[in-house]
Design a protein that fits this description.
Elements (H helix, E strand, L loop, with lengths): L5 H7 L19 H9 L2 H6 L1 H14 L5 E2 L6 H5 L5 E3 L3 E3 L7 H5 L6 H4 L1 H14 L5 E6 L1 H10 L7 H9 L1 H24 L4 E6 L7 H19 L5 E5 L6 H4 L6 E4 L5 H8 L4 E6 L8 H15 L4 E5 L9 H12 L5
Helix pairs in contact: 4-8, 9-10, 9-11, 10-11, 11-12, 15-16
The chain binds coproporphyrinogen III (CP3).
């Protein structure tokens, strides 16, 4: 039993005293204690060393009254397990020397045993669960198949992911085979995360908004839905699809418990698209954490007033930025924790 189960209750649509709060990328570069470890160990060493990953996961929990922890890792550990040798290059970000560009490349991707390849993630989760001592839930996550395809084909980040899109449009058979392989691996990976203590699973579809609504259905949502259908049998699932307001109506009819929204949609429209069917999560503009703490407090109260206190999880509309002062992140969290209905 989790002592503070606000997040789980909000996801089940049960009554809560106030909305739960956590921040996407809460274990990150705005924390001095994170930077200390970042300067000593490279990114994937931090991910692959269970003691480091567990330590980084609990760093924000020691500082702030957060209602959930999210395991420190990356969405790219899944394609790495499938044989794609992603690196994190300073100043560049994710980098794959030999991107996936042909049907042959896709056919060469092996079926892997996630337990064997990603045992370090599970070991990090076991350590984290001990540290959390059932005080708050632990969130596990994975990238959506489409978002993973974006990096696998493009080989790096991009403003438009045009190489990934042209691969899908010119070579749909290879694209669907790749999406299929990622989907299967992701389902195995996430079900094992639940065995290792994940209380909630979040799917990050960071680049879903690059696709038109019709292409979104074909290349992204279809695969996310399969993951959601399997994983939601064991824990609540949240889907955060950045830029995908157009898909909210369809998502509201899925087995997801929570839907993440970014800051480009109003709470009213997000509610209108999803009815009262789902718990919504979001959607504070991460750059608004650069406002003075008093302004942050005011904006958070307005956000909760508009989403409502029920079926709602306060969060940012995307990951926290590295240049956010710690006091401002604290002001955001405390504004939710101290929220009083007018
Ligand atoms: O939320 C959390 O605190 C958990 C940790 C987490 C990380 N990455 C750690 C991380 C999560 C949930 C992710 C997911 C992730 N990774 C996504 C989806 C969410 C999103 O932001 O859209 C994506 C697209 C990635 C791929 C990735 N990893 C990118 C684009 C980058 C940034 C590269 C850069 O140049 O900054 C990363 C690196 C990364 N992952 C960092 C962290 C804290 C920062 C780099 C570092 O610490 O060295």
């Amino acid at each position: 039993m989790i002592k503070n189960d606000l997040l789980l209750r909000a996801l089940r649509g049960e009554e809560v005293e106030r909305p739960p709060v956590w921040m996407m990328r809460q274990a990150g570069r705005y924390l001095p204690e994170f930077i200390e470890l970042r300067d000593k160990y490279d990114f994937f060493t931090r991910c692959q060393t269970p003691e480091l990953a567990a330590e980084i996961t609990v760093q924000p929990i020691r500082r702030f009254p957060l209602d959930a922890a999210i395991i420190f890792s990356d969405i790219l550990v899944v394609p790495q397990a499938m044989g794609m040798d992603f690196e994190m290059r300073p100043g560049v970000g994710p980098w794959l020397e030999n991107p996936i560009r042909t049907l042959q490349d896709v056919e060469n991707i092996p079926v892997v045993d996630v337990e064997e390849e990603l045992g370090y993630v599970y070991a990090a989760m076991d350590l984290t669960k001990k540290e959390l001592d059932n005080n708050i839930p632990l969130i596990g996550f994975a990238g959506s198949p489409w978002t993973i395809l974006c990096y696998a084909v493009e080989g790096q980040g991009s403003k438009s992911f045009d190489k990934a899109k042209s691969f899908c449009f010119k070579n749909p058979i290879a694209a669907h085979m790749l999406l299929e392989k990622i989907t299967q691996t992701t389902i195995d990976y996430l079900l094992k995360k639940v065995e290792h203590g994940a209380n909630v699973i979040q799917i990050f579809d960071s680049w879903g908004g690059m696709l038109s609504p019709a292409d979104y259905d074909e290349f992204s949502w279809k695969y996310i839905e399969r993951i959601v259908n399997e994983v939601s049998k064991v824990v609540p699932v949240t889907v955060f699809a950045k830029g995908c307001w157009f898909a909210l109506e369809k998502m509201a009819d899925s087995n997801a418990s929570g839907l993440g929204v970014d800051w480009t949609i109003t709470p009213e429209l997000a509610r209108q698209f999803t009815g009262n069917k789902k718990t919504l999560q979001g959607n504070f503009d991460p750059a608004r954490l650069l406002s003075p703490p008093e302004k942050i407090q005011e904006l958070v109260v307005d956000m909760i007033d508009r989403f409502g206190t029920q079926k709602y999880i306060a969060n940012l509309g995307h990951g926290i930025l590295p240049n956010v002062p710690v006091e401002n992140a604290q002001a955001f969290i405390e504004a939710v924790v101290n929220y009083k209905k007018k």
